[in-house]
Amino acid sequence: TTIENWAASAELSNSYLLDDDVDLQAAARNTEEKGLPFEIAVPAEHGKLLQLLATSIGARRILEVGTLGGYSAIWLARALPDGGELITLEVNPKHAEVARENVAIAHLEHKVKIIVGPAIETLETLAPEPPFDFIFIDADKANNTTYFTHAKRLVRTGGTIFVDNMYLVGLVANEEYTDDNVVGVRALLHALKNDPEVDCTTVGTACYKGFDGFLYAIKK
Ligand code: SAM
């Protein structure tokens, strides 16, 4: 089978299961018009999965590392009840500006706080009181282990840490590949082996962008 078949199947499923979402479509369009690489945002069906997972644990506080144009942030923020908050971290001021516009398009300004700066520096300023219920890591993979270490400190017991791009088109297992992203994913796997603080699994995925996978972790 080909990735085109997967993409077509995902599109068919989405046409049945996902709402025709005017705000998200407008946000996606705005992201592309402003010249941001929208193709690196999560696909719609993963955005919906993030929203469902956050909803299923009753998340009131969500943290995201890697905002881009706020596409996944919008999905996640929609899981929040009144008074809930999503904090999302982005190093690129242009990305943050477009994300602010998109969050406004989706009428979620009151729930979303975008903090501009290198995520590690911002994470060092965040305290776990009150803790986060759900943390989504989707930035530069080279820093994944540091992000994950902070996530464990900031998430509540029983809370979720979700890390995107854990298979990277299947290159993670190919030792010939030594780019920063692949090395970053391997380092995180190494750190997670026998980590007593979390219970995790990875799941391989396919979408219009190709093959990849995510990590789902629960803080013990
Ligand atoms: N989560 C977004 C979505 O699905 O809509 C996509 C995020 S995109 C894959 C990764 C983002 O992380 C980019 O916008 C990039 O500028 C940002 N980023 C890269 N390095 C970063 C760093 N050191 N600190 C904070 N953000 C960073």
UniProtKB/TrEMBL annotation:
It comes from the Eukaryota. It holds the Pfam family Methyltransf_3. Belongs to the class I-like SAM-binding methyltransferase superfamily. Cation-dependent O-methyltransferase family. This is O-methyltransferase family 3 protein. GO terms for molecular function: O-methyltransferase activity; S-adenosylmethionine-dependent methyltransferase activity. One of its GO terms (biological process) is methylation. The keyword S-adenosyl-L-methionine applies. PROSITE patterns: SAM_OMT_I. Keywords: Methyltransferase, S-adenosyl-L-methionine, Transferase.
